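Thread: Newbie trying to understand structure tokens

Hi all, I'm a second-year student working on a class project, and my supervisor (Dr. K.) asked me to get a predicted structure for one chain before our next meeting. I've only ever worked with sequences, so writing a 3D structure as a token string is new to me. If someone could post the tokens and maybe explain what I'm looking at, I'd be very grateful. Here's the chain:
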Amino acid sequence: MLVVLTGGTGGAKLIEGLAAEMDPAQLTIICNTGDDCLFHGLRISPDIDTVTYALAGLGDGAKGWGIQGDTFTVLEQLRRLGNDAWFNLGDKDLATHITRTRLMAEGQSLSQVTERIRTALGVKARILPMSDDRVETRVMTREGEISFQEYFVKEHWSRAVEGVRFAGIEQSKPAPGVLDAIRQSTAVVIAPSNPVTSIGPILAVSEIRKALRHSVVFVVGVSPIIGATAISGPAHKLMAAEDREPSAFGVADGYRDLLNRFVIDGADAGLRGRIENLGISVTQTSIRMTSLGDKRRLAREVLALIEK
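---
Reply by user tm_fold:
Sure, no problem. This is what the structure looks like when written as tokens:
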């Protein structure tokens, strides 16, 4: 069994490739929930939904979020009625959030609801939230503290960031099945997702990082950064705000207690020696995933490293 830690679009791309190159029933995905939010009274789990839609063949690859071909009639009407509707929710996407909200109001946990939705959409891979407890990523700026979604979507990550914190993380426990999945896995992949706000919250659940640190399974990470810039999103800005070098080296350094091998882009060959000095083996390849072929090629390379 292969376990993948993920959040955001980069991780979903690699997972789509992995599911196409192996038996998806042998794939367990542990998703970031620090981005989860409440809009219009509905519970939204962006990273869980992005992965679920990608594996169900419904994802909008061009946007990197939502359902392909979705319409936004409800959102337009919400704006007409004077609602603050800056967070884009498609009509079909809303059905997911309505279902999640109703089931959780009836007493089901986030992991139970996630299981029900992925099964209904025909997804064979197992999808687990990192925790059923509420954790919220908060971004500290000069103008005050805001949610990650306000920073990322509403403000288009334009504000200067002074730091990031995960509200509720101290009390959080891994969701049911998370620790067992790690312990029973053949290998663990840390996806090319934002190391601060996508992978960061998962590893901040202390029992998850402890399980990974003490596990004997092979752990391979894939860099989300080429040069000094994230392939997509503000990872490099957030890393700099956390006094971490915004580079593949900086990402590897943050995972140094976990990684056996790290996959970097060929353009970052100059960082290989520094990363290997951390005690981490390095593989160089093209890590950009602009097509399904790219996703599958990178997935094959990651699986080959594991098989070795």
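A couple of things are worth pointing out once you decode it. The first strand starts at residue 2 and ends at 6. The radius of gyration is 18 Å. Feel free to ask follow-ups in this thread.
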